[in-house]
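Q: I have two molecules that I believe assemble together. Could you output structure tokens for the complex as a whole instead of separate predictions?
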Amino acid sequence: MEKFEVHILGCGSALPTTKHFASSQVVNIREKLFMIDCGEGAQLQLRKSKLKFSRLNHIFISHLHGDHCFGLMGLISTFSMLGRTADLHIHAPKELEKLLTPHLQFFCKGIGYKVLFHSVDTQQQACIYEDRSVTIYSIPMKHRIPCNGFLFVEKATPNHIRRDMIDFYQIPLHELNRIKNGSDYQLPDGTYIPNERLTTPSSPPRKYAYCSDTIYNQNIIEQIKGVDLLFHEATFAESEMARAKETFHTTASQAGKIASEAQVKQLMIGHFSARYDDENALLTEAQAIFPNTILAKENLYIKLE
Amino acid sequence: MEKFEVHILGCGSALPTTKHFASSQVVNIREKLFMIDCGEGAQLQLRKSKLKFSRLNHIFISHLHGDHCFGLMGLISTFSMLGRTADLHIHAPKELEKLLTPHLQFFCKGIGYKVLFHSVDTQQQACIYEDRSVTIYSIPMKHRIPCNGFLFVEKATPNHIRRDMIDFYQIPLHELNRIKNGSDYQLPDGTYIPNERLTTPSSPPRKYAYCSDTIYNQNIIEQIKGVDLLFHEATFAESEMARAKETFHTTASQAGKIASEAQVKQLMIGHFSARYDDENALLTEAQAIFPNTILAKENLYIKLE
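A: Yes, here they are, computed for all two components at once.
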């Protein structure tokens, strides 16, 4: 199966702790890397992950709170020192370009590659990136400032050729690509062999949704329906519900509720408040609503099956 | 003895490694904390150090390369979230204020304390800070951009009272402060007892010098003469001398030479290039010139005796 992995670089929230780095993840789809959020220390964690810096061309920033973007300058500088030449694309709320440009000019003199900013409208469900492996959509969040999550939808892969049937009908090799992509085949005697007899269907396209930071918001359910993996913030436990509402964050059981209503396959919770020494209390609360829940953790990676 | 410690938060150089954080140290003098440089991740390391955030009121930035200042925004934001009200003073080359101000306005809305910038002239040996415990001087460095190190000189502490002599002469308690500070004492019969008979001298004031980043530069020797601890950058080994010159850095044996000529008591080397998996080669080179050398290391702290 083609590679589709989610690597957690940091899953803490705004205040530093001895356990967590600030928000940052890397999605690896067929060896193309997409970074989601870039909190302070993201480049250190990326180095630790052994993922190849040169495979990362797109960074998606959910919103402009420091714990989601203060690692950008360090990463951009490091890319420059490593001799990068490929364009780096940053998809983020529009204010970021104006904020970072003077710093790029001052700290990255002689930079050998372009940093290109793409403004994301945090109010819209929109396709913000597409290539032949993946389509990425924005998911509007409800937070104290403009914010959006991201939905990664894998492109369908070609059907699998049934070698036994190809041999049986003595189909020449140069026909195989068309058959993989769905064509039927006509025998020399004129008989049509339907594609379903020559191939087995490829796995259905996998989906990953990243939803952080946000207050509990049922509006997202339709868009993330049935994803293979949902990362949802769970900053607080149920006992801190008032604080969660006030700061536009979600509790662990609310994250479980979203996962359950969206019928996702697996839920990963993260963006933990610094007040929790042991996040198992959060896990227990989420699992009470949605059993197939796991805790995010630095240096964890999940393969989407 | 009064507290005078140096805590290493990060001692790597520009490129991230799995071993090192970027440059940052904290000098603790009598429970007042002074940060030197603030590379990315400094606040994480400060949290790990268990030093009290509220005791830190002054940050000294040697120069405006990212690996010495990209941690500032995170630290300032965190202080704000922790409800800080005390002024925070940042002593740095003058461009920093203009660079950081728009970020402070955007990312730290509603901040409850003042961030005050003090421009340091990197060309001058000058007193840049003074209180009743310490005087801090700038040490001009030679680097690719304006840069200065820092010399911390402890203020002399009062002499120690000799309890036996106080009892012998039956000196009243309210006279002790004056005697500690050097006064002689007159007995009721008119006899003068010289201060030397009533006290033992306090320890001589201790000194710490931070010299990074810089090419080998003998001009600093006079200013750092005899310090108790010298931190000197040693980015490269002798085999990379050409690279050291080109990038305005120092080799380990050059750092040893500076320590030896300045007759310091101890040398600590740091700011290691990412190319060295094992810095013991650097240590060996420095020790060949100046035996009392140690390697800087994250979470290490040194008490000045």
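A: One point stands out. The radius of gyration of chain A is 22 Å.
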